[in-house]
Amino acid sequence: MQHYLIAALAAFSLVFSPSLAAAQSVNVTRSILPTQPYTLIFPEPMVASGGGADPLIVNHPDAPLQCELQIVPVEDTGWSAEMALDTLDDAAVASSWTEIMPGFTLNSKGTAAYQDATALIYDGSSPESAMGVPLTVVHTETVSNGRGYVLDCLYATDQAAQARPIVDFIIANFATRSDAECCIGVEVAPDPEAAPAQ
Fold first, then answer.
1. For residue 21, what are the CA distances in angstroms to 96, 144, 180?
2. Can you give the pTM of this predicted structure?
3. Is the pLDDT of residue 144 over 50?
4. In sequence order, which ranges of 61-149 are alpha helices (DSSP H)?
5. What residue segments make up the domains of the chain, in order of their start?
6. How far are the Cα atoms of 2, 54, 88, 134, 166 from residue 100, in angstroms, in the given order?
7. Are 159 and 64 a contacting pair, CB within 8 Å?
8. How many C-beta atoms lie closer than 10 Å to residue 140's C-beta?
9. How far is CA 102 from CA 36, 73, 141, in A?
10. Rounded CA gap, 136 and 158, in Å?
11. Total Cβ atoms within 10 A of residue 116
12. Residues of 81-114 as b/e, b for ≥16 C-beta within 10 angstroms?
């Protein structure tokens, strides 16, 4: 899963555009599959691709920021973010990212609120990557109704001041159901395929 993120990030510019840092409108992507419900809200001009059997990937065409959502079946119906945090193996986490982010260091860990669930969250960074620049990853995961949700966001570490607030926004507004409300205080971008109001 982590290889998808690096491959797509490698083509990005290394400077955030002013439009990304000051994005005012958002896009809302909802699953149409009853077996994989979710609502993912992200700022314009970021775009989504994939979904269904493939991970859903959201990225910005001109900036080193990308998030990937995967939904997987789980057997541990008693899973909780708090338990996952208590049993998190820091060395195993670092090892899992080392192949694509050599020298990966776990920076912080805890729990975070999605719209409708509590998630395990950790972030870490690496002085090297397949992009040739230091990268930071923010990883979140939760279990809801027998499904596991994994949302990973990667960005160039030197762009953290602009990227991390966007990542935090995406995480806070994510939902494990497809009918979640949009965020407060922003305008939803109009759907160009929607029929005009009568």
1. 30, 32, 25
2. 0.84
3. yes
4. 81-87, 90-98
5. 2-188
6. 8, 20, 20, 11, 23
7. yes
8. 26
9. 33, 30, 23
10. 9
11. 13
12. beebeeeeeeeebbeebeebbeebebeebeebeb
> Is residue 133 classed as helix, strand or coil in its secondary structure?
coil
In this prediction, residues 7-22 reach a mean pLDDT of: 47
Q: Which residue matches tokens 């909802």? A: 30
The whole-number average pLDDT for the span 157-161 is: 92
Q: Give the pLDDT confidence score for residue 100 in this predicted structure.
A: 87
User: Is residue 144 a contact partner of residue 150, using CB atoms and an 8 Å limit?
Assistant: no
Q: Which amino acid is at 100?
A: I
pLDDT at 14 over 60: no
Q: Does pLDDT of 190 surpass 60?
A: no
Give backbone dihedrals phi and psi of 171, rounded to 5 degrees, phi first: -65, -50
Distance CA 102, CA 196 (A): 51
The two three-digit tokens of residue 114, written as one number? 């999605």
Helix (H, G, I), strand (E, B) or coil at 4: helix
CATH topology of domain 2-188: Protein Transport Mog1p; Chain A (3.40.1000)
Instruction: Please tell me the chain's helix, strand, coil percentages from 3-state DSSP, rounded to the nearest 5.
Output: 25, 35, 40
Q: For 49, how many CA atoms within 13 A lie in the half-sphere containing its CB? A: 9
